[in-house]
Amino acid sequence: MSPELVLGIYVFIMAIFVGFEVISRVPSVLHTPLMSGTNAIHGIVILGAFLIAGAADTPLLHALGFIAVVFGAANVFGGFVVTDRMLEMFKKREPGTDGDKKDA
Amino acid sequence: MLDLRASVIALSYIVAAVLFIFGLKQLSSPATARAGNRLAAIGMLLALVATLIDRQIVSYWTIAIGTLVGAVIGIYFARTVQMTAMPQMVALFNGMGGATAALVSVAEFIRLTRLGEPIGAGEATSIVLGCAIGAVSFTGSIIAFGKLQEILSGKPLQFPLQRFVNALILLAVFALGVMVVMGGGPPELWMLFGAALVLGAMFVLPIGGGDMPVVISILNSLTGLAAALTGFVLHNQMLVVAGVLVGASGTLLTLLMSTAMNRSVANVLFGAFGAAGNNTAAAASGVVRTVRQTTPEDTAIALAYARSVVIVPGYGLAVAEAQHTVRELATDLEKRGVNVKYAIHPVAGRMPGHMNVLLAEANVPYDQLLEMDQVNGEFPQTDVVLVVGANDVVNPAARDDPSSPIYGMPILDVDRARNIIVLKRSMGHGFAGIDNALFYHEKTRMLFGDARQSLTQVGQALKTA
Fold first, then answer.
1. Residue A14: partners with Cβ closer than 8 Å, 6 or more residues away
2. Looking at the structure, do residues B172 and B255 belong to the same domain, yes or no?
C-alpha cells in the first residue's frame, strides 16, 4: 500500500466520526434541506472531473471528462441553489409567532 | 516538499473542509441552516478554484464549457422546480453526482493505463469501488426519479427469479472487480461499469414508492461514498472528507427513516413491500364493510364548531399541490378560534422531511407542526382530525393487527380522536397495497375527490357556516 493510500484511509475514518458527531441530531423539519445540502456537497467530485478534463489528451478522455464536468456542475450548482430556495421558505414565517423561536 | 502552488491548493482544501463541517453543523439547526448552506457553498467555490491551478490541468476549455452547461441546467431546474417535485429533484442531482464519480474513476484508470503507470492494488480497488458504487447510485437515482415523477409505476416491479438474477449481476460486478484489481484492463472496467449500471436499476425497481424516503437516503449516502473513493483514486483528501461527510449524513437519515417504519434497512431493500400478493386478501375482506361519505358543507360545519383540529398531511397533499389551500383553510379556522395543529409522521411523503418542506412553502409556522410522539397523546382530546392524502401512516392495523404487513410500524393514532374526516381521491390503497381499517371506522367520514378541490370547497362552505 502506498503511504498516500494509508493517509487516505486515516482521513476516511476520522471523517466518519466527524460526520456522525456533527449531524447526529437533526430536527425532522430539516431532513429535506440536510439531504439536499449534503447532496450538493458530494458534487465536490467535480474536482476529479476537472483534473480528468484538464489533463485529457485523447478524444475518449475529453468526452468522459466533459460529461463528468457537466453532471458534476449540475449537481453542485443545482444542489446549493435548490437548498437555498428551500431554506428561504423556512425563514418566511409571520413575525411575532412562536415559530420565530430558535429551537436549536 | 510541496511547491508553492501545491501548498496553496492543499491549504485551500483544508479551509474548504472546515467550511463544509461548519456548514453541516449549522444545517442541523433551523435558525442557522441557510447560513450553513451558504458556508458550504463558499467552501465548494474555494475548493473548485484551488483545483484549477493544479499543474495536471493543461487545458481549460472542456472545464469551462462543461461547467457552464452543467451550471445552467442545474440552476434552471433548481429555480423552477415545484416544491412538490422536490424528492425527484434531489434524486436527479444525486444521480448526477454518482455518474460523475463513476466516470472519473473510469477515466483515471484509462489515463493511468495509457501512461503505462503501475496501478497498485489499493488504487485499483478504489477505482473498482468508486466506479461500481457511483454507477449503482446513478441508475438507482434515475429509477427513483422515474417512480417519483410517475414516469414509472410507483408499485414494486417484480418478476420471477428476480433475486436470483440480481444476485447473478452482483456476482458479475464482483468478479469483474476482482479481474480489474488482478491486473485487468479498461475492457473489464467498462464491463463492470455496465453491469453496475444494470444493478442500480434492478436494485430500485422492486422497491415501492412509499419506501422512497429510505431509498433516497441510501442513494445519497452511496454517492457520498463514491465521491470519497474517487478521493482515494486521485489522492485527493478533499474528496475523501466531503464524500464521507455526505455518506455519514445519508446513513444517519437512512437509519432514522427505517426506524420510523420499524423495519430494517434490509427489509426495505429486499422486502418488495406492497407487492401484488398483499392486495388480494385485503380486497376480499374489504367488500362487506361500509364507508360513510360526507360533503364539503358538512366537513366545514364539523371543522367550524370544533375546538381543536389536527391536520394530517400525506403524499396525497403533495400530489394535489394542496399545501397552500390547506394553510388557508387553517387560517380561516384559527380566525374562528379553532386550535389548529399539523401532525407530521416521519415517513409521510416521499423523502425525509417532505411534509415539512411543503408546509414551510405555504408559510405554516413551525410551532404548529407536531411530531408523532408529541401529537399522539393529544388525539383523544382532539375534536376533528383532517387526514389529507395520508394512508398507511394512520392505519390502525399497524398497531392492532399482527397479521398486517405493516404491523409494528409506529403510526399517528388518529382513530382515537372524536371525529375523523379523510380526504382521498378514491378508495385506492396506500403504497403498502393494504386496506385501511380507519376508513371503515364509525367515527370516520370520507370526502372523496382531489384534495385541493375538496379543501377549496370546504373553505367556501366555511364562510357561510
1. none
2. yes
